Write the structure tokens for this entry.
Amino acid sequence: MVKICVIGSCAMDLVVTSTKRPHAGETVLGDNFSTVPGGKGANQAIAAARLGAHVTMIGCIGEDFYGKAIIDNLISNNVTITFVDSTSDVSSGTAHIILAEGDNSIIVVKGANDKVSPALVEKALDTIKTVDMVLVQQEIPEETVCYVSDICHRFKIPLLLNPAPARTISKTVIENAAYLTPNEHECAVLFPEYTTTEALRKYPNKLFITEGSKGVRYYDGEQEVLVPTYKVNAIDTTGAGDTFNAALAVALAEGSSTQQSLKFANRAASLSVTKFGAQGGMPTRSEVEVNL
Ligand code: RIB
């Protein structure tokens, strides 16, 4: 069983489904409202645990109703929560999601996720040193991502950086990461000086650009490769990227080839969109393998 440490956000997703997305200044009637666990960090932790990894989460919740539900959910999905801190200063993170016209729009209120500090990560250093892969995203402070990249570099722990949501990142963080998984928009923010092809060639077998329903693109050292996704009936794409990242981390940590790992990650992500909620469709290991 590979060991993965996820350093990132925990949130409650407040989801409205509607046939129409309102324009600025417009009011529309929605169809349904649900509250489901989310946050890119917690989503990736739970996806990796369902795929059979031993997962430790480093994060922060508010001392409130949502915080308790987030912790209960991590525990029931076998994620180790020793380093999930709590604070009374600020509420748990929330994501305000509209599902309409076949896609989602999300506003994230970071709340307690802003308290995921280098000091909190440092408390977990002995555990981090034992893992096969660290996974980090960008719903936590930038200085924490920099610190994580620094310790991963120092202790030679592979770091998978999912640079979402988009923000500029220092060259050192980019170099320290073993793997980068932006979508096309995030890639343009990461590498404003390069075209997609130039960026891919600069980082062979390291930069994996996700292209939604088309698949994932990378450069294998000789040529650009597009690993296609699987066609499914998509109900809710929220969390597909998180499932992809978690599955990729698990497969790479297990020693699978780049191509095999991307295929596994695409399969897991495609299954995740067949059910409602960021975590609702995240598959187990056997569900992915049977469908590969
Ligand atoms: O990646 C999907 C996640 O992004 C949602 O669960 C929501 O919490 C937002 O953070």
Observations:
- The chain has one domain: 3-20+31-124+131-287.
